[in-house]
Design goal:
It is a single chain. By secondary structure, the chain is mainly beta. Strands 12-19-18-14-15 form a five-stranded mixed β-sheet, with no helix packed on it. A four-stranded antiparallel β-sheet has the order 8-7-9-10, with no helix packed on it. A hairpin with a 2-residue loop joins strand 14 and strand 15. The radius of gyration is 34 Å and the shape is elongated.
Length: 260
C-alpha cells in the first residue's frame, strides 16, 4: 500500500515528518520509526524576453534563459539532444539557425540526487525571407514591352516560420500590381510572376517587392530594368530544342523582329 500526499498540502522547502501504523486482527498496534522528507522546489526556467517578440509565438531574436535551482542544488541544461551544461549565468542557444527547439533542464544536490528532467519548447526565426533571381535582371535591357517580371522568395531554413503569402506586395513604377501577380508558393519558398496587361513605354522601369514571413520578419527588394524596343528580337522556330538530325546539313528558320 502507498499514500500520495496531494500537492496542495505541500509547501516548497518544507520538511515532512511521517510514520506508519499497522494493526492486526487481534488489535495489536505496531508503528514505524519517524521518517523525514525534505521537499525541494522544482527548478523553474525563465525566458528573456518572457514572451515571444515576433508574430505567432515566434522569437525573432535569440532569447536568454535562466534557471536558478533551489538552495544547495546545481542546475543543468541541454538543448535538444546536445551536450549537457552546468548552469552558472543566463545563456542562449547561440548560433542556432532557427526553428523549433527544446530546452531540457534539471538539478542535483551534493549527494547526486537528481531532480526529474523538465522541458520547455520554444521557436526561433531570426532570418528574414530572401528575394533572389529577379527578372528582368537588375540593370538589364530588354526589348519586350510586356516583359515578365519575376522573383524567387525563400525562407532559407526548413524549420523557419514560413512565408506569409498574403503579405506579398509588388509595385511597378510605384503602382501596386499585386492583384495581377501569380504566386507559386510552397510554404518555405516560391516564385512570384507578373506580366503587364498593357505595353510599357521604352525607358527605365522600377520594381519593388515586399514580403514577410509568419514571424513578421520582412524584406524589401528594389531593382530596375530598361526597355529598348529597337533591339532586334531573334526567334529560331526551326529546329526545335533537342532536335536530332540524320544529316549534317540542317536548315534553320530564323525570324528577326522588328524587320529591318
Amino acid at each position: 500500500p502507498f499514500y500520495v500526499i496531494p500537492s496542495l498540502h505541500i509547501q516548497d522547502n518544507e520538511t515532512i515528518l511521517w510514520r506508519y501504523y499497522a494493526k492486526d486482527n487481534a488489535n495489536n498496534l505496531a508503528e514505524g520509526s519517524l521518517q523525514l522528507i525534505d521537499v525541494t522546489k522544482r527548478t523553474q526556467v525563465t525566458l528573456i524576453p518572457s514572451n515571444p517578440n515576433g508574430c505567432n509565438n515566434w522569437y525573432v531574436t535569440e532569447p536568454f534563459f535562466t534557471l536558478p535551482p533551489d538552495t544547495g542544488r546545481t542546475g543543468h541544461y541541454r538543448f535538444d539532444s546536445l551536450e549537457n551544461h552546468e548552469f552558472s549565468i543566463p545563456f542562449n542557444h547561440s548560433g542556432v539557425p532557427g526553428g523549433h527547439q527544446i530546452l531540457n533542464y534539471w538539478s542535483n544536490d551534493s549527494g547526486n540526487n537528481l531532480e526529474p528532467s523538465q522541458a520547455t519548447l520554444f521557436q526561433i526565426d531570426i532570418t528574414p525571407p530572401f528575394i533572389t533571381n529577379v527578372k528582368p535582371a537588375n540593370g538589364s535591357t530588354v526589348s519586350d514591352l510586356r516583359a515578365f517580371i519575376e522573383a524567387r522568395f525563400d525562407e532559407i531554413y526548413f524549420d523557419n516560420a514560413g512565408i506569409d503569402a498574403g503579405s506579398i506586395i509588388m509595385k511597378l513604377d510605384g503602382n501596386n500590381v499585386t492583384p495581377d501577380v501569380n504566386i507559386f508558393n510552397h510554404t518555405l519558398e516560391g516564385i512570384m510572376r507578373f506580366r503587364p496587361g498593357v505595353e510599357l513605354t521604352p525607358g527605365i522601369h522600377n520594381v519593388e517587392i515586399f514580403i514577410k514571413d509568419l514571424a513578421c520578419l520582412n524584406t524589401t527588394k528594389e531593382w530596375q530594368f530598361f526597355i529598348n524596343d529597337t533591339i532586334p528580337l531573334i526567334n529560331i522556330s526551326f529546329p526545335p530544342d533537342h532536335f536530332l538530325s540524320p544529316i549534317s546539313h540542317v536548315p534553320f528558320q530564323i525570324t528577326v523582329l522588328p524587320e529591318s
